[in-house]
Amino acid sequence: MKSKLSTSFDLGARTPSKGRLVAIVGNPNAGKTTLFNSLTGSHQKVGNYPGVTVEKVSGPLVLESGLVDCVDVPGLYSLAPVSEDERVAAEVIHGRSDDLGQPDLLVCVVDATNLERNLYFFSQLAEAGHPVVVALTMVDRLAQQGKSIDIPKMSNLLGVEIVPLVGHKDKGIQDLKEAIDRNLENPRVPNFDLGLPDALETKVAALRERLARIGADFSKTEVRRALLQPSEEFESFLRDFPEMQEAFDDARAQLGQEGILKPTLEVATRYQWSEMIERAVTRQEGPARKRSRTDVIDAFLTHRVFGLVVFVGLMYLVFQSIYTFATPLMDTIDSGFGWLKEFVSPRLESVPVVQSLVVDGIIGGVGGMLVFLPQILILFFFIAVLEGTGYLARAAFLMDRLLGWCGLNGRAFIPLLSSFACAIPGIMAARVMPDPKSRLATILVAPLMSCSARLPVYLLLIGAFIQPKFGAFWAGFALFAMHFLGLIVAVPIVWVLNRKVIKGKRLPFLLELPPYQWPKWRDVWLAMYFRGKIFVKTAGTIIVFMSILIWGLSYFPRLTPSQEAQVTAEYQAKHPGADEATVSQHVEEAQLANSMLGRFGKTIEPVFVPAGFDWRITTSILAAFPARETVVPSLGIIFSLGGEVDEESGNLRDALHEATWPDGRPLFTPWTAVGLMVFFALCAQCMATLAAVKRETNSWKWAVFMFVYMTALAYIAAVGVHMLGKAFGG
Predict the structure, then answer these.
(1) Are residues 110 and 203 in the same domain?
(2) How far apart are CA 31 and CA 110, in angstroms?
(3) pLDDT tens digit string along 70-110?
């Protein structure tokens, strides 16, 4: 059985690639994704690497010699990974990915304005012994600084072909394709001397040879790092091979005696080499700018006061856009599926079971899933635009100090803010988190933010019980408090999760501030397209399936004709003047009470009585599991008003006021209303959200964990509110 470390130190043969494979690699913010989009266009596949939640983006690359597979590898600064993304990227580069095999060619994206740092990573690639082509980006920005790169000289020094690019204008793309074609036919492996001590390199070569004898394939960089800066993973590997452990210990002892065993030796040497290359190939052709445009803008946008004002304004715009601008589109989708229901329903009237399955289960389920799509598309439009301009990094910088104490960093503000509109795009936006544990913590608390789906419940209960008794001010305060409650609770929850459940250490928040630029609109549209596609194909499938399941639980078993006649007769005897529609609504309520869902609601009623909820409230909670938006229609059915009511319906408010317990006590009081709102504010009462969590974490484990802890939290809070109400005589 493989250990947890087997993916990092894999012994034996590598998995062969199914076809020619080109991997796009490089530092973050070097222009890698823009280049990948230019090479592959919209013909991309988005998935996960096996066993992890790191996203894998691949697509076909059309060359003169034919099609090759192209993969956009997660950005990394070094082949010594510190996060899940970087670990996966390093495995792809070394050919240890379970589903990709060894790349035939690495296209190393190098930022011309940050040569020293980018060449550090290139030097590690070169030592790995893989064929490389360098795509030199940002040459237009370097020219704005009055500088240029001597391409032939740099190519000669690095020993590889170099193609200058202006990615956002697609300049040089065809030249790069031709270079890739040439290097696939005649690969060029970089070959140069970093200037490390001969004694060290001799030991590295000898240890590599001994490792190869036991079937372990490690690059020079990996073996050298194991000597100078041994990691726990590599030491664990050596413990399984005592003879290799002894060889490494002897080598370290000898290097230590010669004064070579310095942890910073390799890093310092690589940066010296990178600096030497940069000085050799960079030419100053014009007057150097004393202060760039980016520096001028940053003086304002990263200011401790004005920067926060701009940040709040921008986030308000994003929030309002998701919360408000999506409404017409969502209403259109809702109306479209409403029309479809009306069109299909009469044609299936002769078969009631099929009619209900198709209209309420299938059409209702698909419509309930697609109604979220506008919010997701608008969210990722803004994220792509802000990322494309370079502002997203500044926003993370501003928020880091506010979020740092509970274990998150500045990037968490994006998913948390987005979740106030809808938890699904908020959970998907957690991909901006730099490491898997902080991303998981963000995902697990994002649904605590009060999304727009909770709003109908708030408006119904506040309008029925708070505003009539306490006035408009307290009604507004209650609405604000319900939205703010989740945020107040989320911060200590994250603190507990980070220390007791996930047990992850907060990584240093290393952030590069890229230069400001206009976003590339093709990248923006592609981001929206692929995010929407992922949602519909993955989370959407689960949502539709669960909607049909909930429909079945609320539809079966049916009342027999004699039972239906008895319910009708009893109601007409108590309400002689009731019209046919009212009687039909009462029969519908009886049917729901008789269904498996209604029976389950009655069964678990004793559990919710301490919170002040009877079986009717409990059943409406259960019926709302596909989506919180169904709470109000469910209450309409339960209280004999039909499913067409909304939060503004006066007859529903009247019915809630008149509802009583069997002993005649009012079912709803202001305290009951507050308790129910608190329950909905804190519980994970949304199947779509759980489906999104499963999709993003690649496991049902965390979706179930989130459902359990949030439901328990909501229950305890609702019971607390009810007990407080009883203490004050409510």
Answers:
(1) no
(2) 8
(3) 999 888 888 877 666 778 888 888 888 777 788 999 999 99
